[in-house]
Please model this.
Amino acid sequence: MNEKMIDLGNNRSIIRELFEFSKKRKQEIGAQNVFDFSIGNPSIPPAEQVTKVLIELLNEEDPCSLHGYTSAQGDIEVRKEIAEDLNRRYQTTYSENEIYMTCGAAASLCIVFRALVDSVKDEILAIAPYFTEYKVFVESTGATLKVVSADTTTFDLNIKELEKNITPNTKGIIINSPNNPSGVIIPEKTLQSLAKLLNKKQKEYQHPIYIISDEPYREIVYDHRVVPHIPSIYTNTIICYSYSKSLSLPGERIGYILVPNTIPNHQEIYAACIGAGRAYGYVCAPSLFQKMIVKCASLTSDMTIYEQNRNLLYEGLTKLGYECVYPQGAFYLFVKSLEPDANRFMERAKSFNIILVPSDSFGVKGYVRIAYCVSKDTIIRSLPQFEKLMKSY
Ligand code: PLP
Model:
């Protein structure tokens, strides 16, 4: 047996543990009495058009072709539609030959890491706080995930720290903006500084260093902000996208990889993605959902609901004295723990039936993540519990 896999299977992520704990607690004391902020499961329904198109497809399409195999990299129609949608938004010239359909961002990331890593010496950089599964995905290729801390006052990238950590073994750097768990959007100016640094290092080491941009929250942005299109700032950028959050479809497993035609060896990288998809058996993303995306690629769920939640919770918690960075996107609040050990704080919060995720697994200490993709009512009713939690210190 593979000991590493046994270990991964036996030790679920803390988020999953808390999610399971919360389900059990809800059975014991009633769902309305548990304030579960553990998991990033969208709380708003998909756009109406998504359901309508799915019903039409089920009623009108030939079932054998509807549920049949597609091309390994996805149907040409959906790849074309996604490329055109991106071109409309970013004034680019992408085509279907640069899009690979996947089962969500997790599969996109796994494929890209497998396509890029070719030596156990390879290093992929992530910026803390980071999505916990990056470590699992990168290490399963044999490479090392090297964690660099962000600027802890703003949670923006710390370019100086990054520079110190780039070595001749650096294959790529993962960027996640809007960020899970901080909610911060990396400003265009910072991305330009990052591009300058990476261009310098590419020249110095005479090999490409890729940005792997993990973008499941790209459309969940507030105060009219826009997430910069990183390939327009730094050429060697590969995008891992998912409809899990933007269309509220995490259980349906649908997303894509974009290998932009602006990367000099994009055809080779795209071929390596097809190869990695084949090696993992991640071919032919769900057919029904590929066909739905043809008609819904440019839609999103109603993000104003998350913005209302963000405002309510941010204002409520800061009024009570909690400290947190102002989230510009995604649906998470990253709040300073009321004691140095965030795990102990999480346990204390549990005794008030508030379920929070401690920050250690995101690569930083002393914070908790609140996933506010919950009902408005849950947020309103949770505030007195947060007040009691504060007073207990
Ligand atoms: N990347 C980030 C930053 C996430 O937060 C998540 C899920 O929560 C994923 C990737 C995985 O997304 P998917 O469900 O599309 O695989």
